[in-house]
Amino acid sequence: MPVNIPPLTPEQLLPIAGVALGIAEAGIKKANRKDLLVMVLDEGTQAAGVFTQNRFCAAPVTVAKQHLAHAAICALVVNTGNANAGTGEAGIQHALATCAEAGRLLGCATQQVLPFSTGVIMEPLPVDKIVQGLPAAVANCKADNWFNAAHAIMTTDIVPKAASKQVQIGGKTVTVTGIAKGSGMIRPNMATMLGYVATDAVISQPLLQEMARYAADHSFNRITVDGDTSTNDAFIVLATGKAGHAEITRQDSSEFAQLQQTVTAVAAELAKMIVRDGEGATKFITVQIEAGKDAGECAKVAYAIAHSPLIKTAFFASDPNLGRILAAIGYAGIDDLNVDGIQLYLDDVLVAEKGGRAADYREADGQRVMNQAEITIRVVLNRGSASTTVWTCDFSYDYVKINASYRS
Amino acid sequence: MPVNIPPLTPEQLLPIAGVALGIAEAGIKKANRKDLLVMVLDEGTQAAGVFTQNRFCAAPVTVAKQHLAHAAICALVVNTGNANAGTGEAGIQHALATCAEAGRLLGCATQQVLPFSTGVIMEPLPVDKIVQGLPAAVANCKADNWFNAAHAIMTTDIVPKAASKQVQIGGKTVTVTGIAKGSGMIRPNMATMLGYVATDAVISQPLLQEMARYAADHSFNRITVDGDTSTNDAFIVLATGKAGHAEITRQDSSEFAQLQQTVTAVAAELAKMIVRDGEGATKFITVQIEAGKDAGECAKVAYAIAHSPLIKTAFFASDPNLGRILAAIGYAGIDDLNVDGIQLYLDDVLVAEKGGRAADYREADGQRVMNQAEITIRVVLNRGSASTTVWTCDFSYDYVKINASYRS
């Protein structure tokens, strides 16, 4: 079960002026399941996005990147149940056909629609079902539909993921609302498996793109469930420009900083929800690396710990078998690492220093922290002033169960 | 259960003239368990080894490296139940005390003994129990004791791992016998978690060291169970010089090549046994990457596949959800990879080409191969002439079970 995600209610999610959302049951993989989402954007909305760096990127990712670069976006279409990845040239045609039909229904060009898919890889997209489902999704469009939209993009997710925040900019209230999905194949690199954040802020597209990159780097790009970087990752930020404040045009303005902070906070909340709902997760683990020479080596150590099946299974068992963390630090790839200079903490408990177990460490203290549902692993490298935080979860029987039966 | 390891019998293991092995029950972690091994070497035996590159390397690894560099080796001592890793300065003293006692019993210097430990990390080595157990192990020493030795070094291993081969060199029969242990925390980098190969061949130490490096690179360094590089990996090659042929002194001689081939064959057989007995393994998977630009990029792709929990759980389930393999190829880190040029095979079945599923691929063919206990994943990159093979296993409920309860 997901780790400490409070139940979501429709009222928590604030509408964004200029964004309408509609869902439908297209029967893409299973019957009676909401599996199609359309987001319709008012004219003047700026769109920005970052996408997976997987070389086998999905057809909709290829198409969405092209459309984003060349046209004003009027709609997004998202389907679950099929990733349209590893589908070659036919996949590109299917993604374009989806955009063409959405454009026809909404009165805009194919190039003004961004397509997204998530689900099983290397199976042909049932594009006819999507085309047949689109009219119902468009007819369902309304502003206060974020709650249903969060449900419509789920795959192996147990709970929907959504968040809203507000900030005052230039005397006006600006709202930011986002949804995301993902629970397995999670080790985003530049974006995650479908995250959408919208705001009514007024901002130029180049600055919005900067903000999307920054928010991804401080949220989705800091999480990992299983180390598998998906073929379909995409993180989109939309700004409808309806909030009524003066347009944000400078990256060094306080208004940019305020909005960036709020967008990043929504993205980070969504990203952490993905980890809390990681496949089979029973614990939420924060891996915090401090006093490294640079961010790169901090990340190496953080991911070595966050990806180790031995560490993740020990956390599942609440077993303070913490020597496994030393082993992961040791193989993280820092060649000149002096292990005698490192401190390892579990929450506030000093576990290891001077190359071995700390003199005052008692197993009962380690056990107390291991029994918690939320744990921070803190490694102080004592080599410099860089730091990195990565969020991950444990590794349970249920991860194996979910992924041994995903297609059935 | 281990995948296709035939039962081992004492008769299969040929003695090596100049090597005697003795075991004992020292009660290091559990009572009534063979947990201590002594290997006594005749004068004139050459020893060579490669060790873990984990920066948190175990105290016995540090000591063994020093002793190997500075003295003629007369004995090896191996304990299971405790890794003596992450134990700081006290760990070094414990490893040295073990060597001193073995040396005293055998009439050689502390520096002539190599210590090895395997088991739990970051707990003090019960050196008193080892010292008390050594006389019994020394008294047990005999040449035809490889079978018992293979048992005495096991930890979570289900079956013992050992192999013998013979080769004709300079008109004489040369014998090579080896033992190894390991089943979890297996992703060796320069050696594996305890492998010992002995031969009666006559060869100089520098050439033996070359051979140890080559054999490790083509055996233990090509396997992975869980991607966790151990703190205690060590692979040792011993040559007693009793076979009676002229000493091998040139690396470009046919005698060197013959011996290297035989030593590597024994090492590869042991390494594959470790994967077949990988924690929770139900399948033995060969990952073969061909036609890459260089060996480095082939290895990146091979390990991305071999370490993916999503792929490993699909193989456990015999589910041909093979798009996950494309995803792993895509995130392996080859930036200029053209995915349209790749072919993916499962044994003889062409699964994917031209960026997607092959036109003639039928799920029934994929299912037929997936049902097997031994499967080859073959990826043809079509970028050059380099190739790499890695051996791994699947990821089952039992891996989680074993590692969630390892210390209890």
Automatic annotation (TrEMBL), chains A, B:
Q: Which UniProt keywords apply?
A: Acyltransferase, Amino-acid biosynthesis, Arginine biosynthesis, Autocatalytic cleavage, Cytoplasm, Multifunctional enzyme, Transferase
Q: Which GO terms describe its biological process?
A: L-arginine biosynthetic process; ornithine biosynthetic process
What EC number(s) has UniProt assigned to this enzyme? Answer: 2.3.1.35, 2.3.1.1
- Compartments it resides in: Cytoplasm
Against InterPro entries, the record matches this protein to:
Arg_biosynth_ArgJ, ArgJ-like_dom_sf, ArgJ_beta_C
Where substrate binds, per the record, is at T155, K181, T192, E279, N403, S408
Question: What name is this protein filed under?
Answer: Arginine biosynthesis bifunctional protein ArgJ
Q: Which organism is it from?
A: Nitrosomonas oligotropha
